[in-house]
Specification:
The relative contact order is 0.06. This protein is of the alpha+beta class and 502 residues long. It has 4 domains: 1-178, Reverse transcriptase/Diguanylate cyclase domain (Alpha-Beta Plaits); 247-343, Dna Ligase, domain 1, CATH 3.30.1490.100; 381-414, no CATH class; 421-501, no CATH class. Helix 12 packs antiparallel against helix 13 (313-324) and helix 13 (313-324) runs parallel beside helix 14 (360-374). It is built from 15 helices and 20 strands. This is Nucleotidyltransferase/DNA polymerase involved in DNA repair.
């Protein structure tokens, strides 16, 4: 279900003009001469001016001939933008999915609202529409609300609303009320509107009566689009508005903070304000960025990930407290900055047999406490790096998702067939005797082993672009007189037994 909000006579409402007065709205830039003003086209008129026979599209001189006491005003672009922003802000309090269709009109997608499945009766929708209308009425604006099962039909319903109208798809009798609506509400391009006016087509009903094939051959795709909209429209995706609001609070302290509890009290107040802003925009916090400025002009910044995105203040406070309890500072705090990264709340429901953490945020607090105890980068899981160097890995957080390289390393394509290698960790130092650059004798843990056969060398190297991390291995496979296969590596002119096969 979709809801369309319409501010009728939008330009006049933006000017805060009284509808009973006889007022006409012209372009924003005032004309320099009287003759130029008389030839200017009227964009919008009030109810009082309409009753005298004045209509949009007339020139000022034509309108004054019919209504001598007509008041002429110029449209205010900044005021219109402010009212449109106010309209969208009110829509955001009902659903996160809404479209700014054109000035004075916005469409709300209500298909994901929780109360939709419960309110299927006509009176229930009427009550909801009156509540929506009241949001703008309290600020002095006249709002019309239309409900329908697609966005275009909801817009048409708003044009016939008084003040709320619900149009149900498949009910032909309800769509007949749309036939008397003017063609201009479909917002056709000026050339097409001029052609239709020459044909005498001025209402939606007259447009629908035209043969579809003939209309397409003469007006093309736009003609078909206008005819479809006049019949109630089709399913389409909304051009959703996504606000780029920044959720950040900065405080400069008059009195420095020297202990944890005053700082936590301040952070709690900041989180309460930020959480309210997140709730208003239908977001949750995916991470926190905390910056502390100290009296010695130094600063400390840290990003804290939220295991399960939330805007619950107690959960975020526990995360901050766990981190700050392990932080030491050499000077008092004179400034605090807290920023939340907004993300969409997860809407998927876990399956019956899915196993997961009962409280991911509590688990994250435990990991943070361990990191404070053991040091940063020492808590997590070992994840292989995309490198040929043996045992090349890094420590990834337990709550981080697996990278593409880590998933690729576990695929069936990388499983080699052959004798398994029993690795020695760490590799055992050895003395190797060479003859003609090939191993012939191996001394390992005081035991002398004669080499019956050897294969190699295989050279491995990497990170040649970084002198601090460059590495190079020479690998040999040797077999002693008892048939035991060993794997030898030479690194920096030193020999090691990396393991044995079988």
């Amino acid at each position: 279900m979709f809801a369309a909000w319409l501010l009728p006579r939008f330009m006049l409402q933006a000017l805060r003009a009284r509808q009973p007065d006889r007022i006409a709205v012209l372009e924003e830039t005032p004309c320099k001469t009287v003759s130029q003003q008389e030839n200017t086209l009227i964009l919008s008129i009030s109810h009082g001016a309409e009753r005298t026979g004045v209509h949009p599209g007339m020139t000022v001189s034509q309108a004054l001939a019919r209504c001598p006491n007509l008041q002429v005003r110029y449209r205010d672009g900044q005021a219109e933008q402010a009212v449109q922003s106010l309209l969208l802000k009110a829509a955001e309090s009902w659903t996160p999915d809404y479209e700014s269709t054109r000035p004075g009109i916005c469409v709300l997608d209500l298909s994901h609202t929780r109360w939709l499945s419960q309110e299927i009766h006509l009176h229930a929708w009427q009550d909801r529409g009156l509540q929506m209308r009241q949001d703008m009425q309290t600020q002095g604006y006249d709002l019309r609300v239309g409900f329908a099962e697609n966005a275009d039909l909801a817009i048409l319903a708003a044009h016939v609303a008084d003040p709320v109208r619900v149009l149900r798809a498949g009910v032909a009798e309800e769509k007949h009320v749309l036939h008397d609506l003017p063609l201009t509400i479909l917002n056709p391009s000026p050339p097409v509107l001029e052609v239709l006016s020459l044909w005498g087509i001025r209402t939606l009903g007259q447009l629908v009566a035209l043969p579809r094939a003939d209309l397409a051959s003469r007006l093309g795709a736009e003609g078909l689009r206008l005819r479809d909209m006049a019949q109630g429209g089709k399913e389409r995706l909304l051009s959703l508005v996504r606000s780029q609001e920044q959720f950040r609070e900065v405080v400069e302290l008059e009195s420095p903070i020297e202990s944890l509890e005053p700082l936590m009290h301040l952070l709690e107040r900041l989180l309460q304000r930020l959480s309210a802003q997140l709730a208003a925009s239908w977001h949750v916090a995916g991470s926190l960025n905390l910056t502390l400025r100290f009296a010695d002009r130094s600063s400390h910044e840290r990003d804290l990930g939220v295991a399960e995105p939330t805007r619950e203040v107690p959960v975020l406070m526990r995360l901050l407290r766990t981190y700050l309890e392990g932080l030491t500072a050499a000077a008092p705090i004179i400034g605090v900055s807290l920023e939340l990264t907004p993300v969409r709340a997860a809407s998927s429901q876990p399956t019956l047999f899915e196993r997961g953490l009962s409280d991911p945020n509590r688990f994250a607090e435990t990991l943070s406490a361990l990191e404070v105890l053991l040091g940063r980068g020492r808590v997590g899981r070992a994840e292989l790096l995309p490198s040929r160097r043996p045992d090349a890995y890094h420590v990834a957080g337990f709550l981080e998702s697996f990278t593409a390289s880590a998933l690729a390393s576990t695929s069936d394509a990388d499983q080699f067939i052959g004798l398994p290698l029993q690795r020695f960790r760490p590799p055992r130092p050895a003395l190797v005797t060479l003859h003609q650059q090939r191993p012939v004798e191996l001394r390992l843990d005081g035991t002398v082993l004669s080499v019956r056969e050897s294969r190699g060398p295989w050279l491995l190297s990497g990170n040649w672009w970084d002198l601090r991390q460059v590495w190079q291995h020479e690998i040999w496979e040797v077999e002693d007189m008892q048939g035991v296969l060993y794997r030898l590596i030479q690194e920096n002119n030193r020999w090691f037994v990396e393991g044995l096969y079988g």
